[in-house]
Amino acid sequence: MKLPLSGRALTAGAVAVATLMAGGSVAGAAPASERSAPAPGSATVAAAPDVPIANVKAHLTQLQSIATANGGNRAHGRPGYQASLNYVKAKLDAAGFTTTVQQFTASGRTGYNLIADWPGGDTDRVVMAGSHLDSVSSGPGINDNGSGSAAVLETALAVARSGHQPTKHLRFAWWGAEELGLVGSRHYVNSLGSTGRAKISGYLNFDMIGSPNPGYFVYDDDPTIEGTFKDYFTGLGISTEIETQGDGRSDHAPFKNAGVPVGGLFSGADYRKTSAQAAKWGGTAGQPFDRCYHSSCDTTANINDTALNRNSDAIAYAMWELSQ
């Protein structure tokens, strides 16, 4: 998640499509400690599968290794970012997605978005999930935002494993240069034009979903999307709160500003957890949700497995429900 902007100059170039090195295979399924909430009263609607937490964490391990091998970060315009994109793209290509790499320019460096379309469904009604793949330059960015990127990736791979064929078209995205001011996602939204934007039924954003002292925050922008996430957490007996800390500070903002319905999840950044929140969710009152926010200690040790597991399953639940 980006810091609040103050007079930062940003530039975006024209659309270009590039093909990056691809390789690797789809991670195998593994058991998880919690299951997705059942679809309310829907015997005829396919239930979302469990998203294996072991697989999500394996992606985070790979992103950590990439950062470690590339100066300790996965920031825009740096080798660690391109290696991260190559890793995600290889998994999606092997699983049967149609992938596109979109190029743009920010702060004098070339950046990339990765878009993955699952074949089938009504392309005039697109349900989209996305997360930013870049880190800040000061750390590997495993919670911010390896957590969202890994969970969206594993949800996409769950679609492929299940052979899911919903009525609507499924699209997944990993954004570049979010930390410089939502540059990649804004470039994508602008590149669609009004016709392309009108085809997106909903965009779901996931930016920091494994915070070590977690909260359970749901975006309140679109009532249908918000209600879908709340239904999931109600099924687990978890009370949520409206997400306010990151409002306008992550990649849903360009979509929302263009009139696309948006929603998403968030587990907290540098704000401190209140006593009431600690009583509701556990964890430590008076401490940040993520004490390593935008720091070098945002490593694989900076993840709460329970929050990551619940939020990963919530992504799959929402994508299955909203795409029927």
Layout of secondary structure:
Blueprint: E1 16-18, H1 53-68, H2 79-95, E2 98-106, E3 109-118, E4 122-132, H3 142-162, E5 168-175, H4 183-198, E6 200-206, E7 217-218, H5 223-235, E8 241-242, H6 252-257, E9 262-266, H7 275-281, H8 305-322
Parallel strand pairs: 4-5, 4-6, 6-9, 7-8
Antiparallel strand pairs: 1-2, 2-3, 3-5, 7-9
Give your account of this protein's structure.
By secondary structure, the chain is of the alpha/beta class. The protein has 8 helices and 9 strands. The protein has helices spanning 53-68, 79-95, 142-162, 183-198, 223-235, 252-257, 275-281, 305-322; strands spanning 16-18, 98-106, 109-118, 122-132, 168-175, 200-206, 217-218, 241-242, 262-266. The protein has a 9-stranded mixed β-sheet, sandwiched between helices. The longest helix has 21 residues, at 142-162. The model is unreliable at 4-44 (pLDDT under 50).
What's the short story on this structure?
The chain is of the alpha/beta class and 324 residues long. It is built from 8 helices and 9 strands.
Q: What is the structural class?
A: alpha/beta
**Number of helix segments?**
8
Biggest sheet strand order reads: 1-2-3-5-4-6-9-7-8
- Spans of at least 5 consecutive residues with low confidence: 4-44
Compute the gyration radius: what is it?
A: 18 Å
How many extended strands? 9
SSE succession: EHHEEEHEHEEHEHEHH
Biggest pleated-sheet summary: 9 strands, mixed
How far is it from the N-terminal to the C-terminal residue, by CA?
30 Å
- Average pLDDT, all residues: 89
Shape: globular
- Approximately how much helix is present in the residues? 25-40%
Report the β-strand fraction as a percent range: 15-25%
